[in-house]
Structures are given as C-alpha cells and as structure tokens.
Amino acid sequence: MIAYIIRRIILTIPLLLGVSVLSFGIVQLAPGDPTALMMDNPGISQEDREAFLEEQGLNDPVHVQYVRWLGDIVTGDFGESLIYQGTPVTELIMARLPNTLLLMVVSALLAIVVAIPFGIVSARKPYSLTDYTVTTASFLGMATPNFWFGLVLIMLLSVHLGWFPSGGVATLNEPFSLLDRIHHLILPAIVLATAETASLTRYTRSSMLDVLDQDYIRTARAKGFKQRKVVYKHGLRNGLIPVLTLIGLMLPTFIGGSVVTEKIFNWPGIGLLFIDATFQRDYPMIMAITMISATLVIIGNLIADILYAIFDPRIEY
Amino acid sequence: MTLPEKDISKNQTITSPDINLEVKQKPESLWRIAFDKFMKNKLAVSGAVVLIIIIGMAIFAPLIAPHSPEEQVLTNRLAPPSAEHPLGTDELGRDTFSRLLYGARVSLTVGFVAVAGIISIGTIVGAVAGYFGGIIDSILMRVVDVIIAFPQIFLLITLIAVLEPSLGTLIVVFALFSWTGTARLVRGEFLTLRTREFVLAARTIGIRKGKIIFSHILPNAIGPIIVTATLQIGYVILAESTLSYLGLGVQPPTPSWGNMLQAAQDFSIMLYAWWYPLFPGLMILITILSFNFVGDGLRDALDPKRKN
Amino acid sequence: MKKISKLICTLAFIFAFSLILTACSSDSGTTEDNESENTQEEKSEVSNEDSGEAQQGGDLIVGNVSAPTLFNDMFSSDVPSDTIEGFMFDPLTTIDENLEPAPGLAEDWEYSEEELKWTFHLREGVNWHDGEPFTAEDVAFSYNIPLNEEYTGPRGSHFASIESIEATDDYTVEITLKRPDAKFLFQTTVYDILPKHILGDIPVSDLDEADFNTKNPVGTGPFKFDEWVQGQYVKVVANDDYFQGRPYLDSITYKIVPDKNALLAQYQAGDIDYMRVSQSDMPTVESLIDQGQAQLEKVPDLQYNYIGYNLRNPIFEDKKVRQALTHALDREEILETIVYGDGELSNSPGLPFSWAYNEDVPVFEYDPEKAKELLSEAGWEDTDGDGIREKDGTKLSFSIKSGQGREVREQITQVAQQQWAEVGVEVTPEIIEWSAFIDQIHQFDYDAYVLGWSLTADPSITSYFHSDEVENGLNYGAYSNPELDKLMEESDMAMDQEKRAELIEEAQAIVAEEQPYTFLYSQNGNHLFVPQLHPNMHSGNSYYKIHEWWMEQ
User: Fold this and answer.
1) Which chain B residue lies closest to C415 (C-alpha atoms)?
2) Nearest to residue C344, comparing CAs of C308, C298, C300?
3) Nearest CA in chain B to C407
4) A residues 228-247 closer than 8 Å to B (CB)
5) According to a count of CB atoms within 10 Å of the terminal CB, is the N or C end of chain B lower?
6) Cβ neighbours, 10 Å, residue B196
7) In the β-sheet with C117-122, what is the strand arrangement from edge to edge?
8) Do B271 and C284 count as a contact with CB atoms less than 8 A apart?
9) CB under 8 Å to C42, separation ≥6 — which residues?
10) Which chain C residue's Cα is nearest to B159?
11) Mean pLDDT across the stretch B5-16?
12) How far is A212 from chain B (nearest CA, A)?
C-alpha cells in the first residue's frame, strides 16, 4: 500500500514537468505584449515600451526564459507580476486561492448532496416518470450556459427580489460575519455547481444501474431481501465508489467553471485573476496559474486514486 | 463544462465481449436492434427530430431567412418581435431570426468540425496506444495525463487569446485540447479487443498493422465513439458560448449563437428587450439538450447489456 | 457507508478551513474599520459646529470594472491607479474647471524672459501622511526620477524637455528647460509629488518594485492609504491633516467589479455609491433616476473616437479617398443610435470645451453621392460590375480593425462595412482581442482601425500628427505634412496662450481638411451616484476637489 502510494507520487514528477512545458509553451505563442495596455495613454513612447520589455527579460531567447522560469518555480518563486509591478505572483495568487477553494468545496458539496440522491432515485426505477424528470432536469443543467444562468439569477434574486447580494464575498465596511459570508456564497455556488450536479446525477444513475444489474444484487433480490435494503445496503456501497473517484476528477472542471462564475459574481478568486492576466498579457501570472491549477488537479487525482485504493478492496497494488 | 467523456468511459466495462463477435457475423441485425431500441426511447427520438429540424434550418438558412443577417436598420434597434421581425431585432437593427439561422450554421460548423478533429485525433492516439501498448502507450498516455491536468478552459482561453479568436482558431484549439477523453476511451476498447481471437487470426495471416487497427478492430469500437462524438458536439457549442462571454468566441460581424447571446448580455437589454437574449439562449439550450438526449439514447441503444 | 461519511467529514473540514482562511484576511480589515468609525464620531461633532451645508462623515464606495496596479505615478499607467493616486497624492499644480492650471502644492509660479527657467513657490506647512514636512526637496526628487538613466517606467518622454531641477530653498523649486515648452505647465498638473524621505534611498532602478507602491504609499493628499485587498477593493481614509482641510468623507473604497453588468447590479443592490455607466445602460439608469435611487451627471470626456487610416497603404494616399470615406459614413446616425446621442460630433482633433477649438473646420457631412464623386475623381471606378470599385487592378477593399470588448467601436466597424459598401468600398470588420489589436496597430499591421484618444488638458496635437512621431510615436497612420509639422512646432513653443490657441486652431483646420482620420465623436462621461452624494467633477477630473465631496447622513 505504502509502496503503491510512493510509486504514484514518483509518477507525478514527469507529469509536472510536462505540465510546466505546456504552461510555459502556450504563453510563448503570444503576439501581444503587456505594454499594449499602456496604449490609450498618450504619454508613453515606443522607447519607454522597449525599456520595459528589456528590464523584464522578455527579449531573451525562449529556452533561456524557460530554464530561468523552471529554476525559479522549483524554489516556489513564480516571478513578479508584470502588471502589478513588483508584487510576487505567488502573493497575488495566495491572496485569492482561498476564495476559489471555498467556492469549489461548497459547490462540490452541493453537487454531491443533490446529485447522489437524485441519481439513486432515478436508477431505482429506470424509465419511470421520476427518471425522465430527473434526466431532463440534469440535461437542462448541462445545457444551460452558466454565464446566462448566473445573470438571470442576479437579475431575479438579487436585483429584483433583493434576496441575495449581487456579488462579492462580503459586505464592504461591515465587520466579519459568518452569515454574511454564507449569504454571498449561495448564488455563485449554485451556478458553479449546476453543470457538475447534472453530470454527477447522470453518472450516479448509470453507476447504480450497473450495480443493480449485477448478479449478487439479483441474488439478493431473489433471496427475498427487501428492495429498499438491497438498493441501499448492497447497491449503494458498490455503486458510489466510482462516483467518489469522479469527484476528484471534477477538480479541473470546477477550477475551469470558476472563471465564468467568479467574473459574474465578482468573486475574487484565481479564475478572475486568470482572465485579467490573459487579457493583460501578464505572462508570469498566466504561467503560474495554469501551473498551480494543473498541480492541484494532479494532487486531486492522486488523492482520488489513493482513496479508490483504500475504498475498493479489489484493487491490488 | 460537463463530463460527457467520463460518462462514456464507464461504458468500456459494460460493452460485452461476445456481442462484438456478433458484429462480424451479422452486423445488420445488431444495428437493427440498436435502432429499434433507440426508437423506443422517447427523449432520444424527440432530440433527434429537433436536431434534424435545426440542421435543416441551418442548411436552408438563405431560403428561410426573411432578411439578410447583415442588413442593419439603425433606427430600428432592439425592436420587439413583430410580423416584420418574428424574433425582434438586435443592437444594430438586424433581424434576430435571420441571424439565428445563419448563427446556427456557424455554431453547428464549429461543433461538427471541431468534433471531427477531436474524434480523429483521439481515435488515432487511442488506437495506437491501445494496439501497441508498452512504451508507446506509456508516452501517449502521459501526454494525455498532462493535457487532462489543465482545466480545459484555461488552455482554451490562453490559446485563443494568444492566437486571436476566429472560426479557424476555435476549431483547431478545441480539437487540439479536447481529444483526450476519446483517446482514453478508444485505448480502453483496443486493450480489450487486441487479444481477441479475430485479431490474432488477422495477425497470423499477415495482415498489415494499419489494416488490423482500422479495418478490424476499430469497427468494433465504433459504438462508444459515436456516443462520445454526439455528446462532444453539444459540449463544444456550449464552450463556444462561454468563450464568447469572455470575448473569445466567434467574432462579430459573423453571427454565432454564442456571440449573439453575449451581445445581449447587457443589463438594460435584458430588462427592456428580453426577447433578444432569450432566443439565442433558447437555441443553445435546445440544441445541446437534443444532442445530450440523442447521445444518451445512442449509449443505451448501443449497449447490448441494457434492456428496456 | 462509514467510509463515505468519513470522506464527507473530511470535505466538510476542508470547507470550514477555507472559510477560516478567507475570514482571516478580512478580519484585519474590520478592526481598522472600527477605528475609523471612532474618528468619524469625533469629527461629526466638529462639523456640527461648522453648521455649514456640507455634512461630515460617510463612506463612499466607488465601483469600477478594472483594478489598479500600483500607486506610484512615475510607474503606473492605468486609469484606476491614477484615480486612487489622486486621492492620496497631490501634483504641483491642478487642473481647474476651465481646464487651466491652478495652484496645488505650488502656490504660484513664473517663468524667465527667455522662457527656459521656471520658478515654483511651494505651499508651506504641508505634511506627508507620516507627519514629515513637505519641502522643495521632494519636488526635485520626484521630477528627477524619470530623468535618471536607470529609470524603467513609462514616463521618460514626458520629462524629456527638462534640463535640470533644483530646490533653491525649502519652498522654492527652479526647473530649467532645454527649449521653450508651452506644454510644460500642463505636465506639472499630471505628475504627483513623491516623498523623498521614504523613497530617496532606493536606487531608481528598483523604485518600480518598492513596497511603497503597493503596501504603504504615503502622500500629501486628502486621503491616506488604508488597505488594498487584491481583486476586491482599495480603501483610503480621511487625512485629518490635509492642507486644504479635512475631507468631509471618512473614507473612500474603490471597489473592483470586473463585469459591467455585475457592476450595475451592485449599484442597484446598494453596494456601490458612485460609478461610470456606459451609454447602453441608459434605459436602466433612467428608471433608477425615476425611482429616486440615483442621480446622473453628464460631463464631456477629454477624448474623441476616430477611424484611423494607414497611409502606408496606397489606397489611402489620396486625401479624396479619405474624405469620401467620411462623406459615406453617417456619423450623425452613429452618434444618435449606437452612442444614444450621448456625445458631440467631432470634425477635428479639437474638443469643443477646450480654449483652443476651431469651430470653423471643413466638415464632410453624410453624402454618399458626394463620396461616389470623390472616389471617381480619385480614379476608383467599378469597371467589372461587381459592386466594388477598383483602380489599376487593385480593388478598393480593406479591413477595419477594432479591439475586442469595446462594444460601441465594434458596432461602428459593422456600420462602416454596410455604409461603405453602398459607395462601392468593400470593408471587412476584424474584431481582435485587445492586447493583440494594440500590438498590431503598433506594428502598423492594419488598413484602418477604430480607436479613441484620451487627451490631457493641454490641447497640443503634435504627438498624434507630427512626422517625427511616425516611427516611435503615436502617429500610427504615418501622416506627414511639413506645413503642419511647422505649425505644430510653433504652437508648442508659443508661451502666450492666445497666440498658441490661434496656431493650434489653424493646425486643427488642416488636419480636418486632410482627414488622416475620420473623426467620429467625443463622448460624455456618465457618472451615476446615490442621491445623498454631493460630488464635484469636470472633464479633466471626475474626482475634482474630492475633499469637498460630502454625503447626506
């Protein structure tokens, strides 16, 4: 078991290296440079722009820049933001990461709490009215553009009815209050969770259907166990194991979904930071965020794998 | 972003070995069974009907559209639905209905072409990895692992921002970064199929590897590929609208459902010209819903173990 | 089942943990809030004694879509940073309602007869936020930063005309110029004075990364830095010791809301007190005003929008073509519809409310027939009957670029496409992601583009149309005209404002006639604010005399 875990951890090293190459590589294709934003400003000349590029080392050859960057990130130094001059990228990311994690965790919990019961109900009586309703609802969830859904929620529930704040993490100029925090969290969490809830419901349903079709369940039924007991005792346990590992795999989708959700709800997380960084050509920031989020995903998958190994006795290491 | 391909990969374990043999013997009957099963699934059939209508409208857009999609009447901006403009007009006084029809062409093209790319790359990589196994498999699967580790939207945003958003860029970028699910799926199929007797037989009589891969094994793995392709189209159309929201989708004046919806994402427009954001939003919703229904129906239909 | 519930427990723990993490960062903020509330109470008593109309107190929340970057005027180049710097710092002189320089940290000034030596007399008794006195040394220090060879910021060229700066005594500064420069006094309205006692020991090459810029800026301005929560807000609190009197407001929070719809939603939800709204938001804004939830102040912006032509492209060489394109575009209709009539038609690079504005320039009003005539005169005819004119085998066909996210300009490219097609010109709009768009303009990789210029209060047009500005300057279209060059040079040296206005107006007329740009319109700034707020603004400054702003309690 320990050996398996160690082997899995060692296997992530080439993966991280590959991730770093890709993070670095795509940014290098960029034609625009960060001085573009100085443009609308008549006081900035071409020489001033050149001086800036030189100072930031952006005129060096690509491989030199990559090795320098890789050497730095190994020591945890992702460089300084080109836009927020002088501020380390890690500092800016760390200031925002907790917000994104909070939103992600709450959305994931929400997705689990909603999806698993509905998936089970759906699987218990496939092709029934309940199943069709749940199926349609989850397909709707998957098909709704979340920026549209988010804006509709804001217009309806915050602006029109005033039930929820329209964005941000907390009310400004007010002392900290847990209730206020939760109040701000609800709408963005719902929007971020929608698509995941939908696909998790579908997944739970099909996983449960498989399990309920297995011989041992049929045997249990044949032996005259109560339907309810069969489903919940035998079916659930085996049907949910793959679902749990899926939650680990949902990580990249959650981080990705945070981009749009954070923008709509003005949620100061890394998704929002990433969008700004892309449009402002803040190379160190783009590379750091893609690198860090990919690392998070790899760790998430690692944990999912290990959990799977722990939960599922059939796995051999 | 949904997780269609993960949903499918589940299918690997479900596909029953003996049925694949049947494919070789009497393929018509299996497709016949699948077709009958599909036709019994009401959601899937209605999805297919809706899709046929939408695709038909896209193809015959020039015949159906009452106006040119570019014709502007600046004095008639954001007009409500009327006999002249059945779905109202947009912020430049263009006919929303006509633009939706032409937008369907663009959105569906992005969906179909990108998915064709996704499926091609994914199938080739998955087939090669699964058939040859060993070091080739390891390398290819590590590449897949690396790409999967990135939140896909990050890659899409960065690359599209970097390469300038256009129809071509969008399609290429989607194809380049969304094939991983298909590759894993196809590899899984190949891993189980390559040890099968018919493959051994083909090898023994000296058939070329390329021919074995594409003529002998691939047809047996086609079911799950079709399902994943169907679901991916919906996913790509949705992703295009998300990118449009961030300003990175198909760029105006070319209409796409995504950029029409984005152009309508304005507070005042939503309050005072609600019909403008409504219709592109509905089109996206209905189309993706239909693709999902059809994909789901196909999955059930092509899965020999699942009974109605 | 047990294992599953264990997992859920773990997840719940992570949730609680991240909640605490986020809570920590804001906790420190709230304690300081409480402090400022205390000072507010003390202060409100003082203001009651004044019994003036303006009331003491109030926390103003300003909303904006983009975030500041750093608070050091010599290194920042974005509007949000500049705005917040305006709360915390003072320049040597300020811009008044008439867009003319007025006393700031300098009480008055004069220049020598040969127009090269300027002497500024500084206000006495001004203190930095940390209590140190402000002196002439600070001014000399600040203005010397961009002159230093090690300087890496974006302002070098603005200070290029300065020969030397010297503090002759504690409250007198002498600045010697290399050549007479009529724009110089306006430069002094732009750049904030920085504290030498804090930054003086840092090498100029490291100044851009000084902690001062982001963690603890210290100025002489009406508000003191309080905190900056990345991606959320920047808060400044009243400076009790401000030399023009303590501000009425207790604090200003500059809130960052990146989505423009979310910004308006936040206003409606009462989370924002003051913001700029775009023309397309007017229907919502009007209903807010009707409901008594808002007031609107329209102030003409110091800017104009235009379509720029790349004169390196032979198509645009002939001014008749450029004039024809302007004739063929219904700019009036664009202004009335897309811009909601919220602005003023432009026919030259001048602004109507400036002291140098020529009302009598050539105007190329909407007249497609005239446009066709001019194009034919220039040799462009549709000989093959495909609806597009050609000349010597070249089609009159080009692309018009616009930066992504600027909706009005995006729409203008599409209108131009349609209207120009009617006179036989084929145009392809290209909407390009902003940074890439700017890059392409800089590399002259375009035929035509839609953009706007934000201007300074000084009406000089040299930077945009002088032939010296083609290679490395802002004259992207490579327009070159020796006669105009000479006129603009003279205008930049003319110290007498009347004489200068005359020269600039003459230059405006030439540019209008030559049409290196199709001038579109200059827009209004629409400032939306809660009815309790009493702001003060003009074209040159949306936060004019911020210390006099007040809120009904």
Assistant:
1) B72
2) C300
3) B263
4) 242, 246
5) C
6) 16
7) C106-111, C117-122, C172-177, C162-169
8) yes
9) none
10) C433
11) 42
12) 12
What residues contact B139, with CB distance under 8 A and at least 6 apart?
A: none
Q: How far off is chain B from C335, nearest CA to CA, in Å?
A: 11
Exposure on the CB side of residue C476, measured as CA atoms within 13 A: 27
A26:B155 CB<8 A = yes
Q: Is C64 helix (H, G, I), strand (E, B) or coil?
A: strand
Cis before residue C516, ω within 30 degrees of 0? no
DSSP B34: H
pLDDT confidence of residue C25: 36
8 Å CB contact of C154 and A48: yes
Size of interface A-B (CB pairs under 8 A): 164
pLDDT top residue among C224 and B217: C224
Tell me the pLDDT band of A44, cut-offs 50, 70 and 90. Answer: low
Q: Do A253 and B238 touch (CB under 8 A)?
A: no
Over 90: is that where the pLDDT of C318 sits?
Answer: yes
Q: Which residue of A has its CA nearest to B3?
A: A199
pLDDT tens, position by position, C239-254: 999 999 999 999 999 9
Exposed e or buried b per residue across A308-317, where buried means at least 16 C-beta atoms within 10 angstroms of its C-beta: ebebeeeeee
Q: Which amino acid is at B296?
A: D
- Beta strand C251-256 pairing with C223-229: unpaired
Which residues touch B229 (CB under 8 Å, ≥6 apart)? B115, B118, B119, B182
Q: Give start and end residues of each alpha helix (H) in B164-221.
A: 167-177, 180-193, 197-204, 209-211
Q: Which chains touch A (3 or more CB pairs under 8 A)?
A: B, C
Across the interface, whether the CB atoms of B72 and C334 are under 8 A apart is answered: no
C-beta of residue C161 within 8 angstroms of C-beta of residue C177 = yes
Residue of A nearest to B244 (CA): A147
Q: Distance (Å, rounded) from C-alpha B11 to C-alpha A206?
A: 9
Amino acid at residue number B165: P
Which residue spans of chain A are classified as CATH 1.10.3720.10?
A: 97-311
Does pLDDT of B115 surpass 90? Answer: yes
- Asked if the model's pLDDT at residue A22 lies above 80, the reply is yes
Closest CA to B104 of B92, B93, B116, B112: B112
Report helix, strand or coil for C239: coil
Subunit contact B72:C414, Cβ cutoff 8 A: yes
Tens digits of residue pLDDT in A182-192: 999 999 999 99
Burial label for C385, CB within 10 Å (0-12, 13-18, 19+), is: exposed
Joined tokens for residue B144 = 């897949």
User: What ipTM was assigned to the predicted interfaces of this complex?
Assistant: 0.81
> What is the fold, at CATH topology level, of the domain defined by A97-311?
MetI-like fold (1.10.3720)
Buried b / exposed e along C274-307 (16+ C-beta atoms within 10 A): bbbbbbbbbbbbeebeeeeebbeeebbbbbbbbb
Rg value, chain B, Cα:
22
CA distances to A14, A44, A68, A270, C445 from A75, in Å: 17, 35, 11, 21, 41
Nearest to A42 among C11, C232, C463 (CB): C463
Residue type, position B258, single letter: G
Indicate the pLDDT class of residue A314, thresholds 50, 70 and 90.
low
Encode burial over C60-83: b for 16+ CB neighbours within 10 A, e otherwise: bbbbbbbbbbbbbbbbbbbebbbb
> What is the predicted pLDDT for the residue at C534?
93
Residue appearing with tokens 């400003």 = A41
Cβ–Cβ below 8 Å for C157 and A45: yes
Q: Are B165 and C415 within 8 A, CB to CB?
A: no
What is the three-state SS of A122-171?
HHHCCCCHHHHHHHHHHHHHHHCCHHHHHHHHHHHHHHHCCCCCCCCCCC
Written in H, E and C, the secondary structure of C387-412 is CCCEECCEECEEEEEEECCCHHHHHH
Task: For residue C155, give how far its alpha carbon lies from the nearest alpha carbon of chain A (Å).
Answer: 6
